[in-house]
Amino acid sequence: MSLEKIDKEFVLSSYGRDYTNFIKGKGSKLYSEDGREYIDFASGIGVSSVGHGNERLSSAICSQVSNLIHTSNLQVIEPQALLAQKIVELSGYDMRCFFGNSGAEANEAAIKIARKYGETAFDKKRYKIITLEHSFHGRTITTVKATGQESFHTPHFSPYPDGFSYVGSVDDIYPQIDDETVAVMIELVQGEGGVEPFEVETIQNLAKELKSRGVLLIVDEVQTGVYRTGEFLASNLYDIEPDIVTLAKGLGGGVPIGVAMTRLKDIFSPGDHGSTFGGNYLSTRAGLTVVEILQDSHQKGEISSTIEYFRTKLDSAIERYPNLFTHSVGVGLMLGLRAIDSTIQQRVYTQGFESGLILLKAGRNTVRFLPPLVITKEEIDEGFERFEKAISTI
Ligand SMILES: Cc1ncc(COP(=O)(O)O)c(C=O)c1O
Questions:
Q1: Are 140 and 104 in contact (CB under 8 A)?
Q2: Is the beta carbon of 229 within 6 A of some atom in ligand 1?
Q3: How many CB atoms lie within 10 A of CB 341?
Q4: Which end of the chain has less neighbouring CB within 10 Å, N or C?
Q5: Confidence grade of residue 128 (pLDDT, cut at 50, 70, 90)
Q6: Mutation choice for ligand 1 from 15, 108, 137, 139, CB with most ligand atoms inside 8 A
Q7: How many helices (H) and strands (E) does the chain have?
Q8: What is the pLDDT of residue 103?
Q9: 211 contacts: CB under 8 Å, gap ≥ 6
Q10: Which residues are bridge partners to 247 per DSSP?
């Protein structure tokens, strides 16, 4: 049986899946079984932050797993404690961390933190969380309900948990706050919603207003975190102090991990929350090594020069193809091109793949770029050559 047939026979079809079989990766290049080479401008949807086959990461993982992969959270886990310390120090916030295995789990933990705060800090219980209409926060029953896109709230999975409401813009948050509102949850750059960054001033005003009204600010940095926007957190770039921040995706470089960090340092007591695998030796050793690699690269100015170079290439593509794209969007290495419509978006994506370039789609009409943060200039050049080749046929 072919791999495609096995997959179709035994794996539930929750993804619209392509059947190219990748068998190796090096840097920002992927190689398929049929001998083709692809430039990876997607990082497995913002995950492979240190590229593929990174030697420092793979040797740290190999030496960790040959000693110890897992014990349990009933004992202290050295790389977990060290990763928590590292993340907190790099964030610049006075926080503590909870470790899970994915972005959705990180956001679940954030919601539980907010709800416990709402239950314990006020005379009248607060539990409502406001999110934005184009947001994306995950696929569990609660995080899909936190996701503000109606299309995700299909009746197939109802009933959903109460307590979530959605607004179209940051300005619409203010009138929505009532005496049962405990938190606002936002992405500073909406990823799945179309690579849409908010204005710095808008977010700073929101943070100030929420603080004055005792409403928590949860920043979902599952996609924007760990240097994706050029700083360790997008919250650092926006110069705000959130109450809760969630991370996942790029943190493990491909090893599943999620984190909710909060300034409510004593919110949980033993038994309030937990995860069998969360924060184990494998994932936190990987996370620690990824953060060390990226911290080095950030300190040397490499990430910022890569961002600048990538952005220049993207802007020049726009200038030459005004018939396909209206403008570029995004920050850092979380970038997009707004296609004139969804047909062009799909054709750029498909033709890109045909030309050996892995791109992503976001929102209705955005072609999205989330390259590894360690991508080289040569790989960027090669990727854009393939991009030009792909779009010249449209
Ligand atoms: C902003 C944001 N939050 C949460 C999630 C969910 O993360 P995961 O798929 O790891 O559960 C995603 C995934 O795309 C995301 O982009």
A1: yes
A2: no
A3: 12
A4: N
A5: very high
A6: 137
A7: 13, 17
A8: 98
A9: 217
A10: 259
Distance from Cα 360 to the centre of ligand 1, integer Å: 15
- Residue 101's contacts (CB-CB under 8 Å, 6 or more residues apart) are 256, 257, 258, 275, 277, 278, 283
45-57 residue pLDDT tens: 999 999 999 999 9
Task: State the pLDDT at residue 85.
Answer: 98
In this structure, the number of other CB atoms found within 10 A of the CB of residue 125 comes to: 13
Question: pLDDT (tens digit, 9 = 90+) per residue, 289-338?
Answer: 999 999 999 999 999 999 999 999 999 888 889 999 999 999 999 999 99
Judged against a pLDDT cut of 90, whether residue 125 lies above it is answered with yes
Tokens of 267: 């919110």
Q: Which residues contact 35 (CB under 8 A, 6 or more apart)?
A: none
Predicted pLDDT of residue 74 = 97
Q: What are residue 35's phi and psi, to 5 degrees?
A: 90, 5
Is 7 strand, coil or helix?
helix
Q: Which residues contact 146 (CB under 8 A, 6 or more apart)?
A: 107, 111, 129, 131, 135, 137, 138, 164, 185
Residues in the chain: 394
Q: Are 26 and 54 in contact (CB under 8 A)?
A: no
Query: Counting beta carbons within 10 angstroms of the beta carbon of residue 66, is it exposed (0 to 12), middle (13 to 18) or buried (19 or more)?
Result: exposed
Q: What's the whole-model pTM score?
A: 0.98
Q: Which atom of ligand 1 is the closest one to the Cα of 248?
A: 10
| pLDDT (mean) for 335-361 | 97
| Residue 17: C-alpha distances to residues 14, 141, 202, 358, 360 (Å) | 9, 23, 38, 14, 13
Residue 70: partners with Cβ closer than 8 Å, 6 or more residues away: 277, 280, 281, 282
Four-residue CA torsion sign, 330, 141, 153, 346: positive
Angstrom distance (rounded) from CA 391 to CA 347: 8
The β-bridge partners of 240 are: none
How far is the centre of ligand 1, averaged over its atoms, from the C-alpha of 247 (Å)?
A: 9
Closest atom of ligand 1 to 191 CA is: 16
From the alpha carbon of 135, which atom of ligand 1 is closest? 1
